[in-house]
Amino acid sequence: MLDFLSHLELERGLSRNTLSAYRADLLALGEFLASRKLSPLDVRHQDLAAHLSSLARPTSGRQALSAATLQRKTASIRSFYRHLRREGLIHSDPTADLRTRTRSRRLPRVLSREEVGKLLSAPDGEGPLGQRDRALLELLYACGLRISEARALDVGDVDFEEGMLRAEGKGGKQRLVPVGRIALAAVRAYQSDGRRQLVGARAEAALFLNSRGARLTRQGLYQIITGHARSVGLSEKMSPHTLRHSFATHMLAGGCDLRSLQDMLGHADLATTQIYTHISSDRLKEAYFGAHPRARRATERPGAPGLGRRAPEQARSTARRATEVR
Fold it and tell me: What letter would DSSP give residue 209?
């Protein structure tokens, strides 16, 4: 297992959090196999299926795992056995036909433009922490950054002349993302004033600092976001990636093409980016049915003239065609 984890870290460049998840998944598998007196090199498909089935059932000590968690554990086990086969330690892959129940598809939560405006205006921009918070929120929304990417930013990663930001995403992959003028102005104000007060005489490369002048932790950064969301009544709508999801959805609604958005978000697969087209089409249909006088849903005005049983379906078709044109 140690050889496999080293391969993940050195050759695939996975993050520390991902490595920890892999390690936990494989340790759980090891405990299950040990309880059955099985070696990892001798397992059959049935053994691995039994392990995953046991995780899907609640016990007195824990709840049943979600479909998403089971999919991640299956992926960890599958990667481990593919590695063993590449190394010649096993002759056949017992995970070839391994399946888990399908993960339900939930669209990410996004904020409206008005809600984003309220959130970005929440920090008091006078003191060093207020300047930091405003710059952080503006940059998260302006570039669609993950929290881990914002935390990893160094001072030299923002190019004020070119209006670009260098972000390091999953697997250590770097990308360049444009930065809008409002976010650039907020970061410049923070760097020239607030950050200087926070860093003092320390030699620190990190862009976003805590009150002690050190790089913000992931937990600290998220607490900043949720704290300001709470102050403007948006706490129930916030998750670690809410501003990233809102950025993507608003970019598509504004006419950004999918390939460019994929590059800005740092997605390896275009299919990951395409989920935001579903959000945009849902919003489009809501706006259409809420505004068009002859396309209101039949349940709202059952007796209205001109609104027969087929009208809502025709309106949905129109909305779908409009979405395809966009």
Answer: B
